[in-house]
Amino acid sequence: MYRESQPETAPARVSRGTASTSTPTEHLRGASRAGEVLRPTTQQQTPEESAVWTPIAEEAERATRVLHPHSLRLPRPTRRRVLTVANQKGGVGKTTTTVNLAAGLALHGLKVLVIDLDPQGNASTALGVDHRSGTPSVYEVLIGELSLGEAAAVSTQTPNLLCVPATIDLAGAEIELVSMVARESRLKEALTSEALDQLNPDYVFIDCPPSLGLLTVNAMVAAQEVLIPIQCEYYALEGLSQLLRNIELVQSHLNPVLNVSTILLTMYDGRTKLADQVTSEVRGHFGDLVLRTVIPRSVKVSEAPGYGQTVLTYDPGSRGAMSYLDAARELAERGAQEEMS
Ligand SMILES: Nc1ncnc2c1ncn2[C@@H]1O[C@H](COP(=O)(O)OP(=O)(O)OP(=O)(O)O)[C@@H](O)[C@H]1O
Ligand SMILES: [Mg+2]
Predict the structure, then answer these.
(1) What separation in Å is there between the alpha carbon of 107 and the centre of ligand 2?
(2) pLDDT, tens only, 22-32
(3) What is the spatial distance between Cα 211 and Cα 260, in angstroms, rounded to a whole number?
(4) Residues 6+ positions from 198 with CB-CB distance below 8 Å
(5) Best of 18, 88, 95 to mutate for ligand 1, by most ligand atoms within 8 A of CB?
(6) Which of 34, 42, 59, 118 could form a disulfide with 209 if both were Cys (CB 3.0 to 4.6 A apart)?
(7) Looking at the CA of 210, which ligand is closest?
(8) Is domain 75-340 classified as CATH 3.40.50.300?
(9) pTM for this prediction
(10) Which residues contact 37 (CB under 8 A, 6 or more apart)?
(11) Each residue of 181-192: pLDDT tens digit?
(12) Sign (positive/negative) of CA torsion 114, 216, 309, 336?
């Protein structure tokens, strides 16, 4: 078995806490100006009503809700969902999206497995899972030396979250795989029902490297769904047609059930017109595939991995944490609706 590691929606919504279509406090009572007492105490007011409501109190309440497992009921998928998080463009938020969605789902009762398929090992870092050279990792799984369960470790974030880490050994795998039998299906072969049943995840996320090489192809062959994070920046759509062509190739030759199920806009900066332009362009192009939740650019999100954490545990009351939790909820609810229809 796996190892213990060391220690309400509105259209086109930027998730809670951004300067755009919704306010950070729309879901909370009261105003949020620093140190403000909302109303003078009167005899009619309950102690709760007359309490001082400050931004810190507000953030603390948000944090409690993010971390409290019963604050949000996420539907469990009837079938296990395997999602590949891919975009060959570097630095668009693949890893950040993988680990934070995974943590959002896991903190609210679902069991999640993250497979780090990037030799950089960033997802392993953010989940607090050891990935020094020599650690049992996805490399040994790909070459058939270890089973999935033998390489999986429990994340420090929550016991519901497992991670198969990537070590630097994976850097050579792209070349080693070339000469191997069934080189495109090595990961799929490791993700047998038996191996997955042993770990029993509701969700499996595969974090891809920034390339369309054999590792990404392995991820696409092993999954049913592709989740594409798109950064709200210049050249956001550049390279996407190549990614979509590759997905079609995998569909027609190797994995007919593969489909692009989800697009997530990341690093939205409400101060720029460009972010809105990219958002509407992507929505115009991909329609309902794009989650309504948009992830804002936030310093807390980028700081979290430095502490071996996701933003959901690093700063659960922050805008970044709330927005990733919103996105996780949307992903879970969409999956449940699709199964019913
Ligand atoms: N919402 C955000 N706000 C601020 N910084 C962010 C946000 N999302 C990601 N970042 C930062 O942007 C950088 C790139 O993000 P990330 O590593 O998730 O992208 P990636 O697509 O996985 O990159 P690569 O292609 O190298 O694997 C990281 O430093 C990350 O901390
Ligand atoms: Mg990455």
Answers:
(1) 22
(2) 333 333 333 33
(3) 17
(4) 1, 148, 149
(5) 95
(6) 118
(7) 1
(8) yes
(9) 0.85
(10) 52, 53
(11) 889 999 999 999
(12) negative
